[in-house]
Amino acid sequence: MNEAIRVLKERRSVRQYEAKPIPKEIIEDIIDCARLAPSANNVQPWVFVVVTSEEGKKELARLATWGKFIADAAACVAVFCERDNKHAVEDGSAATENIMLAAKAHGIGSCWVAGYRRPYSEEVRQFLRVPEKYELISLVPLGYPAQTPNPPKKPLSEVLKWEKYE
């Protein structure tokens, strides 16, 4: 199987991590892949804040309603896009997916934690000292998987329709 296809098919949301740091070069490569994501009109409206400090990860975990496991990750990437960009959600989502796929290619687990217009979005932005012109799209904890879940996925026959729905 092609390596890219394998990564796409095997990526899962990982919420349990080994207590092992990720080399800086790998994190930089993951973010390099994120910045190469497609964006509407090639505006590239994003900025990525990587948090590796224990205190920073604990605070992000405290703030994020469904992201308590961020505290146990080796790093957490906060994806921000320019607030006035009409395609901020789409562009930031494409970059987020690239982060998760690049992480998987490096043997690193990740999990998408929602950030866009959540009750904690502004607190996260302020905590990370990101300028007001940006808004949070997602938080992506990264770490070597302690456990890789394999939840059932709908079969292709259930989700693929040709020409029209019926």
TrEMBL record:
Query: Which chain regions cross the lipid bilayer?
Result: none
EC primary class: oxidoreductase
**Does DNA repair count among this protein's keywords?**
no
Q: Any idea of its EC number?
A: 1.-.-.-
Report if keyword Ion transport is assigned. no
* Domain Nitroreductase as annotated: residue spans: 8-73
One annotated GO molecular function is: oxidoreductase activity
Domain of life assignment: Bacteria
Question: What Gene3D superfamilies does its record include?
Answer: NADH Oxidase
- Which keywords are on file for this protein? Oxidoreductase
The record's family statement is: Belongs to the nitroreductase family.
Descriptive protein name: Putative NAD(P)H nitroreductase YodC
Q: What is the lineage of its organism?
A: Bacteria, Bacillati, Bacillota, Clostridia, Thermosediminibacterales
